[in-house]
Amino acid sequence: MTALFSPAWADAAREAVDGGPSDEVRAGKLPAYWEWIDDARARHDGTWALVAPDLPGCLLLEWERGRCTRAAVGGAGSAPAATYVLSAPLAVWQELVGGADAGRLVMYRRIRLERGDVLAFFRIVYFVVESLAAIGRVRAG
User: Which domains are delineated in the chain?
Assistant: First the structure.
């Protein structure tokens, strides 16, 4: 296990989101759902900042044509340049890596879109949720 919001965790998170869901995870949902995700993903470019306001830094994920090409832990000044800023207290990010349902965390606004084009975000929301779920499968201590 690696520490949450550490460089090692960022690398593991990038590998998880870039690798996509396992066959076991895919089997739990209809093929049409994953086709939609794959289509949304293929068209996505941008940077996401996953922010915990009670920490000084954030996780930055850079996307190019649906591939997560870079992940880094950035300082507090890194988030403003992101396409989307997703914010939650550290305790909520800990719940995510502890197995909490990413969709519920977003739906119940425990993970919030703090900044970014809301309409564009909700056009790819299931892709975002599945990416968060992949990050949630990366264990952190």
Answer: 7-136 (3.30.1050.10)
